[in-house]
Amino acid sequence: MSSAPVAGAAFERYQQRGGGGAAAANGSTVFKSGPLFISSKGIGWKSWKKRWFILTRTSLVFFKSDPNTLPQRGIEVNVTLGGIDLNNSGSVVVREDKKLLTVLFPDGRDGRAFTLKAETSEDLFEWKTALEEALAQAPNAALVMGHNGIFRNETADTYEGAVPNWREKRPIKSLVTGRPILLALEDIDGSPSFLEKALRFLEKHGIKVEGILRQAADVEEVDRRLQEYEQGRTEFSADEDAHIVGDCVKHVLRELPSSPVPASCCTALLEAFRLEAKDAKINAMRSAISETFPEPNRRLLQRILKMMHTIASHTSENRMTASAVAACMAPLLLRPLLAGECEMDEVFDMDGDDSAQLLAAANAANSAQGIIATLLEEYEGIFHDEHLRCSLSPESQIEDSGTEASTDDGNLNAKGNGFHDAENDVDQEMDDDNGAERILSGKLSESSGYAGSDLYDYKAVNADEADAERPVEVLEGNVDLGKVQNSRSVENGSANVDTLLSENNPSNPASGHETPLSMGEILSSFDPGISVPTQNSEYSVERQSNKINGSHPHVKRSNFWGRNNARKSQHSESVDSSGEEELAIQRLEIAKNDLQNRIAKEARGNAILQASLERRKQAQKPQQACQQRTPLWPSMSQS
Amino acid sequence: MKTPGRGEVSWVQVFKCITIGDAGVGKSCLLLQFTEQRFRSELDPTIGCDCSSRIVDICGKPTKLQIWDTAGQELYSSINKSYYRGAEVAILVYDITRRETFDHVARWLKAAMEVAPASLTTILIGNKCDMSDRRTVSYEEGESFAKTHGLFFMESSAKTSHNVEEAFTMAARTVWEKIEHGALDPTAKYAGLDFVPNVSRGGRCCS
């Protein structure tokens, strides 16, 4: 409810009409009025308060009680408590089982959402109809707000946009805190971020420290260390106090602009966690992670869990068991759960009953700890064979075929799967221990592809401070990576790294994305888990775009390169809009040049791996590899 | 096991007590020692809040100390502030072997003062005094901090049970004295006994 804008004007109009009789004036027709419940949230709980709502063409405002029933004498006006201005870009989403009604606006500036609850199902649908009618007649979005037509990704996540306290807290362009999730582990140039370095430090030096992650360090020393990093002390030395570094990690996680695990993913994990049977629980949690998580969030979560896992595996030295580590980190990772933003079974309808709320908070905290502890205990089972299972799941097949449509080869679908198997075999060999992760943090951090998308995202955030846009752009970034990943998977068998490099090295800064992406493709293809979640996030974007405004035609069914171009043009637009972005472009250019050098080095190293990958694949599926190669190369060179 | 109703003098007076302090200073251990007379060196961090109680006899008056054991993790601090409300006693714990836990005492005190009633009885406890060879906070420092802020002070050890019983009974006695002097009204709206009527069954309530 922090996004309740001015409703005063609407209220005045309402007053002028004498409180709801036969209204006439433009904008003040009452479409519907009546009681609805509005949520009031605290830590781990949510209660619903009954308020009187009045819907007009231009606004939805609410009062403590029906203004008509109260005598309206001078000062004793039943003042409006809040409301929201409407425009025709809004839409209504209904959750019938919970009688929830969400009004959301796709505009990028504040991405407002407003969730209300109806008393009865009939009422719910009456409101829905009335709201849709009002929205259809509401002022044009283009006139009311800016040009930005970007949609939001998921309803549940709009809460995060609606609690905009991170922006004030975030220091301007901090190297350490307040970075978007995509940049949490890597800097713009692909080098390890503060967080990544701190995690490595803990894995190396923290494991022997008693009470690591549990015992708090001195707050001032933590602040000082963060400042020193900003001022250039960017490496952790072995003699540093591990508790300080541990608290730095916590601090960075706390200051992330959005939760490492978004609300919708928390809900999915929570539902999985509540299953009784252990096997079912683990499976459900695994699929929650592979199917609901945006790729950067999954990576971040996995990276943090990896560190926790390492610490918990040295319990005899540091006395931190898995459940203890989980208790210390869970609130940071599952932020929305602790903040009561997840759909809990028990919704407290009572008004302000403290003990019930405290119990709910305790429940939430316990669930959070349980979820993280389970993820830790089953870390290997959940993250290790995630890609095995998922590459064969129906979703990935659908997405594969979507991508492959661009190659005009109808038979690729089945072969794609065959290929995945081959790839998995290789992966398994590679990550016998935690190899995948090692590559993720080591090799992949050199990926300019990753850096390219990151920069785009980062810049967009910095340039216009459009918080609400951010999740979408993160997703768009994913989509492209995911697409690349897909086409990469298909052509992997025949990949020649050097050719790819030279073919896709445009010197034009405006089209700089292609290079990074193709590099990202090369390097990220070593991360077995990547492709599936991105496909899912892409899927949700598509679904959402269908549902909400459908104004992104080429997002839906164009091929990879078409999509990339679409995004590029969007990108160029934003480049023109401010000088700050040009600076960022220059930085990107410098970073890119630097990276190209490093990539060349990297590529030589990778070529060895590539060769073995290729050998294996050809040994297993020689024919498919050849067939896949043919359709893909022409489309690569066209670009 | 009845909860005294408002305005009714029961044969058991319930005092709400909270334990606060940095993570890992031994709050849960102190409580475990007080309520169950045992010590565990490997307790998981408290999640959110835990609660248990014990009836002690204070000058012939059976008194139930209902102790809410809050998590020291800073992450849970926003939840835990809600538990402070209505507390008669705060047991503020630091670890004498870890300087920073003592440095944070002032912050904990401030947080408690913001939420809890002014009549709050606070006892500052320097825990782990069995490890005085690793001591980094001297007894005098703790005592002088307590004096400046009007707190009671003790050094204790949850492991050896040194001063554990004493700390809690001293707290209960002080509350009784406050009631007798009229400084604290046990029937007041936010008195602890009124605040948690439905969870005073003596067992653990929130885990």
TrEMBL record, chain A:
The record's listing under PANTHER family reads: RHO GTPASE-ACTIVATING PROTEIN 7
Where does the PH domain lie?
29-136
Which keywords, in A-to-Z order, does the entry hold? GTPase activation
Q: Which residues form the Rho-GAP domain?
A: 183-383
InterPro entries, A to Z:
PH-like_dom_sf, PH_domain, Rho_GAP_Regulators, Rho_GTPase_activation_prot, RhoGAP_dom
Q: Name one GO biological process term.
A: signal transduction
Composition bias (Low complexity) maps to 620-629
This protein is called what?
Rho GTPase-activating protein 7
Q: Which SMART domains match?
A: PH (SM00233), RhoGAP (SM00324)
Query: Which CDD domains would you find in this protein's record?
Result: PH (cd00821), RhoGAP (cd00159)
Any one Gene Ontology molecular-function term assigned to this protein's record: GTPase activator activity
Where does this protein come from, organism-wise? Panicum virgatum (Blackwell switchgrass)
Give the matching SUPFAM superfamilies. Answer: GTPase activation domain, GAP, PH domain-like
Short name of any one Pfam family annotated for the protein: RhoGAP
List the residue ranges of the region (Disordered).
394-432, 536-580, 614-639
Q: Which residues cross the membrane?
A: none
From TrEMBL, chain B:
Q: Which PROSITE patterns match?
A: RAB (PS51419), RAS (PS51421), RHO (PS51420)
Q: What is the lineage of its organism?
A: Eukaryota, Viridiplantae, Streptophyta, Embryophyta, Tracheophyta
Could you tell me where this protein is found in the cell? Endomembrane system
Q: What species is this protein from? A: Panicum virgatum
GO CC term (a single one) = endomembrane system
Give the protein's recorded name: Uncharacterized protein
MF (Gene Ontology): GTP binding; GTPase activity
Which Pfam families does the annotation name? Ras (PF00071)
Family from the record: Belongs to the small GTPase superfamily. Rab family.
- Where primarily located? membrane
- Does Cell membrane count among this protein's keywords? no
Nucleotide-binding listed as a keyword: yes
Which keywords accompany this UniProt record? Membrane, Nucleotide-binding
